[in-house]
Amino acid sequence: MSQLSVASALRRDAQHNRAHILEVARQAFGNDSVDVSMDSIAKLAGVGAGTLYRHFPNKDALLAALLVLHYEGLDHRRVEIEAGESDAGRALELWVEALGDWMLAYEGLPEPLRAACGVESPLTPTCHAVIATTERILKAAQDEGLARRTMTGRDIFFGALAIAWASGATAAGEDTRNVLRDILKNGWMEPKTAPGGRP
């Protein structure tokens, strides 16, 4: 076998290992939470720790790879919202709902997402992209007088993150997410002005 053929076979083997690890991690995080250890994932995948860490140097790198498809789904939802909703305030509301779904892709995901906003990690670029999109959707609502000027996309992102965290907590009630989402909505909405200019 030529060196080129050997190299090609090794690349295929590495790609197979990476795909297998991702599938095992997806199932493990889905069944339990993102708290599953890297060593446990390696054992479940039937690979050595060295193989796992060659592909994914830490858990954030593994999560970032798993979230690629979830992020594509979130962006597809954004396109649907922007194409189908002419009311900027309603578009913002629907976007926050979509954010919550994305943030709850795996139990325990809100915490690594929060941390990635303060410390550089493989999840940071995705968080920044989502915050930038949120900022743009929020600004459209602000331009129409439907959202407070004091709010930022980062504020909305962290509000949605807090709701996702609370919704995933063991003690959360069935309606916790809806109640907290209403509170966030009331927080970003521009108060109606009564006659005479008083809120």
From TrEMBL:
Residues 15-74 form the HTH tetR-type domain. It comes from the Bacteria. Gene3D superfamilies: Tetracycline Repressor, domain 2 (1.10.357.10). Residues 37-56 bind DNA. Keywords: DNA-binding, Transcription, Transcription regulation. PROSITE patterns: HTH_TETR_1 (PS01081), HTH_TETR_2 (PS50977). GO terms for molecular function: DNA-binding transcription factor activity; transcription cis-regulatory region binding. This is TetR/AcrR family transcriptional regulator. The lineage of its organism: Bacteria, Pseudomonadati, Pseudomonadota, Alphaproteobacteria, Hyphomicrobiales.
